[in-house]
Design goal:
By secondary structure, the protein is an alpha/beta fold. Helices cover about 40% and strands about 15% of the residues. It has 2 domains: about 200 residues, NAD(P)-binding Rossmann-like Domain (Rossmann fold); about 160 residues, NAD(P)-binding Rossmann-like Domain (Rossmann fold, 3-Layer(aba) Sandwich). The termini are far apart. Bound molecules: ligand SAJ. It is an enzyme of class 1 (oxidoreductase).
Amino acid sequence: AKVSVIGLGYIGLPTAAVIASRGVEVIGIDVSEKAVDTINQGKVHIVEPDLDMVVQAAVTMGKLRASLIPEPADAFMIAVPTPFQEGKKPDLSFIEKAANAIAPVLEKGNLIVLESTSPVGATEKLTAWLQALRPDLHFPGHSSQTPDMYVAHCPERVLPGRVLEELVSNDRIIGGMSAECSEKAIELYNIFVRGNCLTTSARTAEMAKLTENSFRDVNIAFANELSIICDELHINVWELIALANRHPRVNILTPGPGVGGHCIAVDPWFIVDSAPESARMIRTAREVNDGKPGFVIGKVQKAADEFKRPVIACLGLAFKPDIDDLRESPALDITLRLAKMELGEILAVEPNIHELPDKLSAAGIKLLSIEAALEKANIVVVLVNHKQFKGLDKSHLNTKVLIDSSGLIA
Ligand code: SAJ
């Protein structure tokens, strides 16, 4: 068997490497020449624990190779971005480009799996595009003849930072365009998945993925809203949540400076876009979470008013604890916005990076160790609960104003 993975990013590359590590021939396709070259040297262009080792082993074994140009294979897995900008429509153009790229090399009996998180109906659209590009083949639901092609949606569900583990251990939802398509896709996932493969329709699989991330977003919004209410009512939200969570059926998540990452802050909008009138709570949750950075900034601004050009230390820049991923990070957003407000001197502490991104240094922000930053700071803003901050000597904080958005000290 030969598997082709289209899109060698945070999902596609680990998936390609893990399948190759099972001894299957894998060809990865990407539009970035740099990504292709890096992978062919056995190296990685993204950060994920242990990924470098798995990729290097797969390339050295001769099981994984990357290319700019698609070639025939038995199965094609599409793992390309599906961006969504608020107020706009879900952007399926990368899926469409992938369809255009693979269409010429498709052969009778091939399986095409869409892994990208997608709005409901995207797999049907992909099938229609492929059918239009290859009228000589028969795609499920789009040809009057017995289908000789298989299409399914199998949404990725791995947690950044634990991708290699979760790729193998998570259960998978397999939404075939027909029952035969689901069966065919299970054969592919059985190569590397130890979890259960659960079959359903493509539309249900699409909605399931969006539901999982919306569930988390709504629950985080609940926690974030509570933190704002508690601030108004002079109640320690961390103590409150710990107490409420002692109830056997209550499990409140953790408030923070906002919701970051590439999925949870985006996917709920797909549902809102599909059902704008009905998706009221899902939309509100998004708004609550998106409003949280502004709330934290307001607190800092109020504290800064008490000083003349205070030194403000921002602890954490990553989008969540114990990773180095700064993309779509509310902590980074807050730090940058504070610098632009010119409230004082802004120090950033981020133990998982060695150098600040250009836009932060250009805004006059300095990267310091936690000790150095605490020594200088008048105001300390806790943004991310990195493990390096946990043992912090709290006596340092007695003389400072503390704004603890993620409950490090409380
Ligand atoms: N966060 C909080 N409070 C919490 C939990 C999280 O403020 O109690 C914040 C985090 O700090 C972060 C954001 O939410 O900024 C998202 O972090 P996360 O760890 O909840 O999720 P992601 O974005 O890293 O990965 C999610 C996962 N989805 C679910 O847990 C339902 C993962 O399984 C998905 O595969 C991934 O999205 C994806 O690619 O869709």
